[in-house]
Amino acid sequence: CNASSAKAKDGMLNPFPELLWLGFFAPTIIRIVAGGIFLYTGYICWQRQGTIGATRFPIIGHGGWVAWVAIVFYIATGAMLFLGYYTQYAALLGMAGSLKGLLLAGRYKGVFFYQRSTYILLFAICASLLLSGAGAYAFDLPL
Question: pTM for the complete prediction?
């Protein structure tokens, strides 16, 4: 037993074990970055209201209201993630929005302006937040 613990001590499985107590802040950093991306997306949608409103979508049609729904969706989701308010619900919304962007990015480039890889990463980040929790300084339901 002593040989294995000495080997683990010499091998140093983690190069900075003294930083492990800060692990609770990892979801916080991810949450704030994802929230910033969604807030920025809402800002870009606000700048491109005309383009989004003129784009004809298969079921919902077109119009200025489409742009405003997108703006409110992205701003609300981003603010919830950034501030840590009901993060798991916001993560579900973020997953839905990034999945929609992933599926429609090739067809509607003026509306969904990120690369498909960005939507995949946003989906993964939101799924991680849904499963791991909100991190520090957040108001969320207990896991």
Answer: 0.81
